[in-house]
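Retro notes, structure queue

What went well: the backlog is down to a handful. What didn't: a couple of records were mislabeled last round, so from now on we paste the full input next to the output in the thread. Example, using Protein-export membrane protein SecF from Candidatus Yanofskybacteria bacterium GW2011_GWC2_37_9:
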Amino acid sequence: MFITKYKKIFLFLSTILIIVSVIFIFTFGLKPGIDFKGGALLEVSYAGGRPEISLLEDAIKTLNINQAIIQPTAENDYLIKTRDLSEPEHQMLSKSLSLEGKYPVLEKSFTSIGPSVGSELKRKAIISIIMVILAIILFITYAFRKVSRPVSSWKYGVITIVTLLHDIIIPTGIFALLSHYTGAEVDTLFVLALLTILGLSVHDKIVVFDRIRENLKDGERKDFAQTVGISTSQTIVRSINITLTIIFVLVPLYLFGPETTKNFALILTIGLFFGIYSSLFFASPLLILAEEWQRKK
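Corresponding output:
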């Protein structure tokens, strides 16, 4: 099986991807959205055609709202992000967007989140990710508790966590690069995408590991690396088909869906791609490497 034959190449490639992603994260950083830092989000639509962004920026400057980010959506819509607004400020902003009645405007939605609520959401998001990772470790260790040879059951759990970190670090690094050049912000949908990646990715890894466990029980005296290679080849088509089915749904959501879900669809698609890659080309080589180290002791 080529996966076991070229395991060092796959391990090297995954390591490079993780290092580059971490560099992107620390170099460019992640911009928190209004969900985490507080602020207001206003979505408006212009029935007769929307004005230029520069005109809206000039109108908003007169309101002393400080910085406002204006993003075009759909054909005649805009998303406007500002600091947290009081109701009088909200009304003044909505009125100013018509440019003194020259562009009739319809307010489609308005969301305001205070700084304290944003901080609380950030704390809960971090706790959610940590709790999911801990739950996965406990579940993998329990599920493979009867597998002790040639690799201890707890090592399956450790390898799963290493590969799951791979699956969320790389999309986060790509998002940091995207954020630097497009201004994309981290919101609750971004956290939801990471949690979804964790759930779907661990499912793929359990399928591969479970096949390895079953093949170890068949009683044949095969080399462990050979068993891992055979097991991976038996699951590769199933894993790829399931992942592609989900990606086929996410691509139209990214291309034709609302602006607010585009980043969610993009990060989830990237995460699923690297999730299936790590299940087949990263987790399996790590398992072989763990067996080789254990055998040398």
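Agreed that this is the format going forward. Reviewer comment attached to the example: The radius of gyration is 24 Å.
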